[in-house]
UniProtKB/TrEMBL annotation:
SMART domains linked: HTH_ARAC (SM00342)
Keyword Transcription regulation: yes
Protein name: AraC family transcriptional regulator N-terminal domain-containing protein
Keywords: Transcription, Transcription regulation
Top-level taxon in the UniProt lineage: Bacteria
Domain HTH araC/xylS-type: 189-287
InterPro entries the record matches: Homeodomain-like_sf, HTH_AraC, Tscrpt_reg_HTH_AraC_N
């Protein structure tokens, strides 16, 4: 395992402190200290493997820490807050990720034996130790960065191998459920996508429950189990994260942005923004802009 990890670290060492493209579809890498505001985001479904350092991820009231040789699977779009840390020896944080494409997972599942039923109440995210087989698949995938002409022919096969190895592990049911229509996770995923695309619209839980083909009480239970948030909390997090991005980009003041993301009261917006990010909107924005644009100070 150590040999494979060392090779992965060498291959990914060219990454920057942001999601760095590799030239391989859906595969990215990141290295170093990441600005804190970038780690409070809406995370897409992915497999994330830590190579050096560690990462803490908080979703709702659940916090996970993952270290080298562990991987994180997120099976639905989730608003989360993260932090990354160097290794004890001072080496910078380093990680690689594969964005999940349900259609590719579904095509792979069509070639595999059908498993038992899914886990109705399980979370949409979790951490597990990596296996030698999964590491070897990652090595083959990242080696393609040095052989770009091989990417069209070999990357799809290596991606299937990566997904197959995850399917064999404790997160396998997650991949099965996001790709299989009618499972609890896929039905909750439909409502999550609707909220993301319509986050400025007032939330009607009855309509979402109907969309998921669940009773209102069952929908609440399943939604909270998957996301660690209630539907209303999920919508609020999406609104606040969008609002923060708009404020940093200078796309309006606190009042206009509050209305723009769906709040009816700027006062309520400021209160919830402060509770989530730890500072009022104007002060939070000034500090972030000062950090990313030193010339403005």
């Amino acid at each position: 395992m150590n040999t494979s990890l060392d090779e992965l670290r060498r291959l990914a060492a060219r990454a920057q402190n942001r999601a760095t493209p590799t030239g391989i579809p859906r595969v990215a890498m990141v290295q170093g200290e990441i600005p804190q505001h970038k780690l409070a985001a809406i995370y897409s479904p992915m497999i994330n493997l830590i190579l050096t350092g560690s990462k803490t991820m908080t979703v709702g009231d659940r916090t996970f820490r993952y270290d080298p040789a562990t991987y994180f699977v997120m099976s639905v779009d989730l608003p989360a807050v993260g932090s990354v840390h160097p290794s004890e020896a001072g080496e910078p944080y380093l990680a690689v990720s594969l964005t999940l494409e349900p259609s590719i997972v579904a095509n792979l599942l069509a070639d595999l034996p059908k498993p038992a039923g899914g886990e109705l109440y399980s979370s949409g995210f979790s951490v597990a130790p990596v296996t030698d087989e999964l590491l070897d698949a990652w090595v083959r995938m990242l080696r393609l960065m040095d052989r770009p002409d091989d990417i069209p022919a070999l990357a799809p096969a290596y991606e299937r191998e990566l997904l197959y190895r995850v399917l064999q592990g404790p997160h396998g049911w997650m991949l099965r459920d996001i790709a299989a229509p009618g499972t609890a996770l896929s039905r909750i995923g439909v409502t999550i996508r609707w909220i993301r695309e319509n986050f400025t619209t007032p939330l009607k839980v009855e309509a979402l429950a109907s969309m998921a083909a669940l009773s209102i009480s069952a929908f609440h239970r399943h939604f909270k189990a998957v996301t660690a948030l209630s539907p209303l909390q999920y919508q609020k997090r999406i609104r606040l994260l969008h609002a923060r991005s708009m404020l940093i980009a200078g796309e309006g003041n606190t009042t206009s942005v509050a209305f723009g993301v769906g709040y009816e009261s700027p006062t309520q917006f400021s209160r919830e923004y402060s509770r989530f990010f730890g500072l009022p909107p104007s002060k939070d924005t000034r500090e972030i802009v000062r950090a990313i644009q030193p010339a403005l100070t």
